[in-house]
Design a protein that fits this description.
four-stranded antiparallel beta sheet; alpha+beta; Butyryl-CoA Dehydrogenase, subunit A, domain 2; Butyryl-CoA Dehydrogenase, subunit A, domain 3; Acyl-CoA/acyl-ACP dehydrogenase; Butyryl-Coa Dehydrogenase, subunit A, domain 1; globular; four-stranded mixed beta sheet; 381 residues
């Protein structure tokens, strides 16, 4: 039976999260960081002190031994308050902990996991290339074996948080004769390694999540920098994708609820024709539709969290949650902008930030068209 009610431990964790956010990220601080393009890397150690990175890690590995339902609740709460901190939390949990735990060597787990759990290590996934976006199997970056290790040549683009990361998890083709998803391996590459060149990319939103174009010019990494088995990198990434898609779905659901809350507050306060805007039936019904979409997204995310927590197959449900949540956010921000009108279009409005930032997620981390193809395939089509 699926029980959606948070238990006492989960409620205590959420209370700690709320107090942390109120103290470290009040509304004015969120707006300051967005306007100044200031990433939340400085908050990682504090999140580590709260124990948030330890939630779903077994106790024998230094964690709290909880499950993904608790992670999901925290992700939604973070996303509802400030997507920037939810995003960096998800990066540590998904690209960091899940990857190291899932296919890292014993030495890599011993060296990296304690730092990840303490919020003292950040790993950025360097997957996307100019000719390999949604089609990640079209990767052209090469890693050539040399004495003592590998030399990497190629280019990655739109790599979020690359400059602030301690390591780039680079997907490169190690078998020159391979094609498609075969022959791809993963390497941990320090951004400061000789031959790594980074160029910042200008974009319309998500100002606190900087993105980079990265060139690899004969970058040397030792043998022990490879993560997982040689030639199995694509399969390794697929093994943890349900975690990252679940992370995005939970976070985006929280952000969508924040957008509904923003529109609802405006509808109650704004007076038109001598009465609150929310007294108009068309506005009330629009807000009701917005909330119903968020409720649907939340239930989908909770179901996915239960599947992951109980060790069940969840590839279809992970793709569905990602599609539903990201399209819900676009729906509610679109209608939220209509309700707020010029007040929402102001650069000082939170709604415009939700609106412009939310446009990324239907194609970020796997376009929704690909997610629908995955769902269809899982249905046997």
């Amino acid at each position: 039976m699926i029980d959606f009610a948070p238990d006492e431990t989960q409620l205590a964790i959420l209370d700690s999260v709320d107090r942390f956010l109120q103290d470290r990220l009040p509304p004015d601080e969120i707006r300051r960081r967005d306007a100044g393009h200031v990433p939340p890397y400085d908050l990682l150690p504090a999140l580590g002190e709260l124990g948030l990175f330890r939630l779903a890690v077994p106790e024998e590995e230094g964690g709290l031994g909880l499950d993904w339902r608790t992670v999901m609740l925290v992700q939604e709460r973070l996303g509802r308050h400030a997507y920037m901190v939810a995003s960096i939390f998800n990066r540590v949990v998904g690209f960091g902990i899940a990857s190291v735990k899932g296919y890292g060597s014993a030495a890599q787990r011993a060296a990296l996991m304690p730092k990840l759990l303490e919020g003292r290590l950040l790993i950025a996934l360097a997957l996307t290339e100019p000719e390999a976006g949604t089609d990640a199997s079209a990767i052209r970056t090469r890693a050539m074996r040399v004495e003592g290790g590998w030399r990497i040549r190629g280019r990655k683009t739109w790599i979020s948080d690359a400059k602030g990361a301690d390591y780039l998890l680079v997907a490169a083709r190690t078998d020159p004769e391979s094609s498609g998803s075969r022959g791809i391996s993963l390497f941990l590459v320090p951004p400061t390694a000789e031959g790594v060149a980074m160029t910042p990319l200008s974009k319309v939103g998500n100002n606190c999540m900087p993105s980079w174009d990265i060139g690899f010019d004969d970058v040397f990494v030792p043998d022990h920098a490879m993560m997982g088995q040689e030639g199995q990198g694509f399969r390794h990434m697929m093994s943890t994708l349900h975690n990252s898609r679940a992370s995005m779905a939970a976070t985006v659901t929280g952000c969508a609820q924040a957008a509904v809350d923003c529109a609802l507050a405006h509808a109650k306060e704004r007076v038109q024709f001598g009465r609150p805007l929310g007294a108009l039936q068309s506005v009330r019904h629009r807000l009701a539709d917005m909330q119903m979409r968020v409720d649907q997204s939340r239930l989908t995310v909770w179901h996915l969290g239960w599947l992951i927590a109980t060790g069940q197959k969840a590839q279809r449900e992970a793709s569905a949650a990602k599609v539903i949540a990201t399209e819900t956010l676009q729906y509610v921000t679109h209608h939220g902008m209509q309700i707020l009108a010029s007040a929402g279009y102001s650069s000082e409005s939170d709604m415009q930030r939700f609106w412009r930032d939310g446009r990324l997620y239907t194609f970020g981390e796997g376009a929704n068209e690909i997610q629908r193809e995955i769902i269809a395939r899982e249905m046997g089509l």
